[in-house]
Amino acid sequence: MAPNSNTNSPKNLRPQRLKPQSICNDDGTTEVGALTKREIVTKILKPFVKQFSAETDGKYIHVAPAGTTGVHSAHIRSIWRGGHMKTKLIGALACLSLSAFAANAQDAKTVVQNAMKAMGGTNLKTLEFSGSGSRADQLKDGNTPGPRVLVKSYVYDVDYSLPASRVEAVAIQGIPPMQTIGEEGHGLQYVNASGSEWFAWDVGGLPGLRVPARPKDWLEIAFPPSVKKPGDPIRQPDGDGLQSHSEMDRVEQIWLTPHGFLIGAMKASDTSVSQQTIKGEKFQVVSWTGPNKQKITGYIGPDNMVAKVETMVDHWMYGDEHVVRTYDYYEYRDGIQFPAHMVETITTPALTGEKALGLELYVTSVKPNITTVDFSIPQGVKETPAAPPATVMTQKLGDGLYYLAGQNDCSLAVELKDYVVLVEGPLNDARSLALIAEVKKLIPNKPIRYVVNTHPHVDHTGGVRTFAAIGATIVTQQANVPFIEALLKTPHTIIPDTLQKTPNAKGEVEGVQESREITDGTRKIEIYHMKGNLHSSAMLMTYLPKEKILTEGDPWTPGMVNVKATDKPYQRCCDAQNIYDNVKRLNLDVKTIAPIHGRVDTWEHLLVYLGMPPEGASESKQSGGR
């Protein structure tokens, strides 16, 4: 039992004797031999030194669990012989540890119950809150965050008993070149973890492999019969394998909400509490183990409101992410206390400062115990098979030249005399391992020495760690070098990837300021900085002068963007005009474009996309006019 912290009277500071458990009776005493007082503490309690502070007065061992103000005591039967004490401990050492932790757990549940009562959540089963704010967008370069995205509306519905959630958001991109500029982008995401199999699904859109950008003989995800049209709920909206984290990520978000944290703490079997003073204010710090086996920790202030919740989650590129949700300006709304303002930060070695700022939301409406939201799993989602393994679909473009497609991002493998250059290591560890296996099959006995990274966005950079693990050099635009280096040093302990399992890997990072050549004397790869690109200021493209093939990552996605007559060039995602400008600036003779997104296409089709006349016709017209 903890002494009253509001008084300093000797009576209240006197150690209180812990009530013995059933195993702590005289029959369970253990002979430990003749020990001094110091030896009792330092030898017998040695396994618990980090968990307890302890001292003895010959009659009691006074033990305080680390981080608490409570003092627990274990009785000692002692006889003094020659300056030593022959000691029997009641109930053996396990009793001491068990008793102290049981009292701590009881204190934790009381703290949580008090907070739940103060926040009006005692009988809370479901909840809806909504508001508006902003969220992060893609990086401008590895060191610079992009413009914030306006979140026009954000509605979060949750059923804590299932658990399940629904998130509907309407967002407006901040500036060009995104296709949605001036328009509203709508997202609707669900998760239901009520059964042994968890389901995450989106409403709106179709899988990435079922679009006109893919040749008809390439792999498609088999749709269940209940999926009839775009917009029907589907389990894999972004292509094979890209939703592998969605279930866990979305369930974790449920327990990061203020009331969700308390409900989870009440259900958990390992809930603990300690005290911490932050900037002069005392907090009850409650922790319990979340569904991803990581601790979820909440900070409960003197007003019994949840001020902050934090945990660690896995990200395929950023690794072990420290996710923190802060809550302030609590208001009484429809029977419960709820914050009017919340801020999320996601921090890793590669995400620091402004880059770590995630969703910031200003809450305008709170509705407890809603009954109007349907969290049931649609039949089409139940029928959709789980994501297949990473797939690589190969298209030969020439001798020793292979376009490696599949999923959402493609790569280009270029064979040189003694090694291979790969343009783009996208997505994640699984995708990179599949690419490595395919390259070994196509180009045996030659290592991948260089991987060219077009720009630092997640889908283009998520697989570079795997190539560093096999000793490849990552080539990126100079502004991205610190970012890529930080990614290679980022811990991936929650779900270890290949690099995490290869501690002695010797992969390096090389920066390109404006241009770089890689050649074996016969074949040459030219690497250029795409100056003035609005999608990323640190964008690279590659050019094979002999084959006249250009590879770019994002500015143009052949077959995947519908061009409108009213579109301006920069509105056609993602700054395709910049390809033309840089090709002409560098005087490159491009005939074919092998993009990271979409399909292999022609230079002439890019001109059509940009609303320009064919270059042959233009030159002929100019010649005829002379």
Textual characterization of the structure:
- With 626 residues, the chain is of the alpha+beta class.
- The protein folds into 3 domains: 10-118, no CATH class; 126-379, outer membrane lipoprotein receptor (LolB), chain A, CATH 2.50.20; 393-624, 4-Layer Sandwich (Metallo-beta-lactamase, Chain A).
- Helix content is 20%, strand content 33%.
- The strands form 4 sheets. Strands 10-9-8-7-6-17-16-15-14-13-12-11 form a 12-stranded antiparallel sheet, covered by helices on one side.
- A hairpin with a 2-residue loop joins β11 and β12.
- α3 (92-118) runs antiparallel to α5 (258-267).
- The protein is elongated and about 75 Å long.
What topology does this entry show?
Blueprint: H1 10-13, E1 30-35, H2 37-44, E2 52-56, E3 60-65, E4 72-81, E5 84-89, H3 92-118, E6 126-135, E7 149-159, E8 164-172, E9 185-192, E10 199-202, H4 246-256, H5 258-267, E11 272-278, E12 281-289, E13 295-300, E14 306-315, E15 319-333, E16 336-347, E17 357-368, H6 379-383, E18 393-398, E19 401-405, E20 411-415, E21 420-423, H7 429-442, E22 448-452, H8 458-461, H9 464-469, E23 473-477, H10 481-489, E24 508-512, E25 515-519, E26 524-529, E27 540-544, E28 549-551, H11 577-586, E29 592-593, E30 601-602, H12 603-609, H13 615-624
Helix pairs in contact: 3-5
Features:
626 residues; alpha+beta; outer membrane lipoprotein receptor (LolB), chain A; Metallo-beta-lactamase, Chain A; elongated; disordered N terminus
